[in-house]
Amino acid sequence: MKALKMKDSPSGNADLSNALHVLETEADGLLKLAKSIDGSFSDAVDVIHNMKQSEDRRGRLIIAGIGKSGHVARKIAATLASTGTPSYFVHPGEASHGDLGMITDHDIVLMLSNSGENSELSDLIHYTRRYSIHLIAMTGNKDSTLAKHADIRLLLPEAPEACPNGLAPTTSTTMMMALGDALAVALLERMGLTKEQYKVFHPGGKLGQKLMKVSELMISYDGLPIVLPNAKMDEVILVLTEKNLGSVLVVENGAELKGIITDGDLKRHMAPDLLQKSVTDVMTGAPKSIESDALAVEALDMMTKTPGRYLTSLIVLDNGKLAGMIRLQDCLQAGIA
Predict the structure, then answer these.
(1) Residues 116 and 185 in one domain
(2) What is the CATH number of the domain that holds 229?
(3) ∠ CA 326-328-331 to the nearest 5 degrees?
(4) Same-domain pairing of 252 and 297
(5) Is position 35 within any domain?
(6) Is 118 domain-assigned?
(7) CA 255, CA 246: separation in Å to the nearest integer?
(8) Which domain holds residue 252?
(9) What pLDDT does 1 receive?
């Protein structure tokens, strides 16, 4: 007997219905959050940004939470740290047993709790009040202990949990996660973080690869196969063989590029008198080039998408002067594709 597809089975239909209910419930919660956001959000961004910008204070954003809120807090801390805001997670329970010493009066504490009444939070709340440490509350209960003691309150709107029993943190944690992302992006915009600065926090993986600069992959000037414009082709053959980069650069006055001789140029000029010819008779003038501070992915695009040609290398310039060479194989080996 042929098995029923999930969408044709009664249980499959129920599963899809449940999934839609969860997604729609959480989406409604996010829409309510978007409509409820107010000046407190800007106040939080101001306080955190000013903490980071102060010349005589080097604070961190301490993020804390219990249970599911704690897991969300860890994610928010990771997102903020990766976008330039020094942040880390402190477990409120561990804080009560010594980790409070990790928090200084230069820091700011962002505490997450939907109810705002978790007993485990009390010691950390008390610590921030005792040492005048800024406390930002992210909570769904404006009358809670956490909200009452906080300097800034990021209030979550009333929204039902997606759990059929209305108990499991679902909509509330989704709103917390989104509000944390909003904080991270707002702070990123405040500091004007560039792609290059962003890469500092993401040196590994695809993001780091995409943001690699040409200067990081290029063969530097000292390693280039170079001949002078008055050289003969017999010298070119020797340099080509010695450097084994598939081309020779014709350079004048140290860094002024006049042209390039590639394997293809040699094939096109193959004749009995080739070795006696001047390099200027064989070279290709004005070869394709790219600036050293360009992204390596731009170099890859130039090499692979030049109409009518497939380049294996590009000349690298620094303010118009020869600086190096970047090869297609180096880009591919670095995972830039």
Answers:
(1) yes
(2) 3.10.580.10
(3) 80
(4) yes
(5) yes
(6) yes
(7) 20
(8) 214-333
(9) 41
Residue type, 50: N
Residue 240, helix vs strand vs coil: helix
Same domain assignment for residues 174 and 49: yes
Each of the 337 residues of the chain gets a pLDDT tens digit; together they read 444 454 555 566 888 999 999 999 999 999 999 999 999 999 999 999 988 555 555 688 999 999 999 999 999 999 998 787 888 899 988 888 878 888 888 899 999 999 999 888 999 999 999 999 999 999 999 999 999 999 999 999 999 999 888 788 999 999 999 999 999 999 988 877 655 555 555 455 555 556 678 888 888 888 888 888 888 888 888 888 887 877 888 888 877 888 888 877 777 878 787 787 888 888 877 888 888 888 878 888 888 876 666 677 888 888 878 888 888 877 777 766 5
Residue listed under structure tokens 């094939």? 267
Q: Is 265 within a domain?
A: yes
Label residues 264-280 b or e (16+ Cβ within 10 Å = b).
ebbeeeeeeebeeeebe
Q: Check: CB of residue 211 under 8 Å from CB of residue 295.
A: yes
SS3 sequence of 267-313:
HHCCCCCHHHCEHHHHCEECCCEEECCCEHHHHHHHHHHCCCCCCCE
**In-domain check, residue 5:** no
Closest listed residue to residue 111, CA positions, set 96, 97, 102, 122: 122
Percent composition of the chain: helix, strand, coil (DSSP 3-state, to 5): 50, 20, 35
- Looking at the structure, tell me whether residues 26 and 126 fall in a common domain: yes
Looking at the structure, tell me whether residues 151 and 82 fall in a common domain.
Answer: yes
The token pair that represents 250 in the structure block: 């014709």
Beta carbons within 10 angstroms of residue 209's beta carbon: 18
Say whether both 127 and 256 belong to one domain. no
| Torsion 212-213-214-219 (CA) sign | negative
The CATH number assigned to the domain holding 118 equals: 3.40.50.10490
- Is 145 found in the same domain as 54? yes
In the beta sheet, which residues pair with residue 106?
none
pLDDT in tens, 94-105: 888 878 888 888
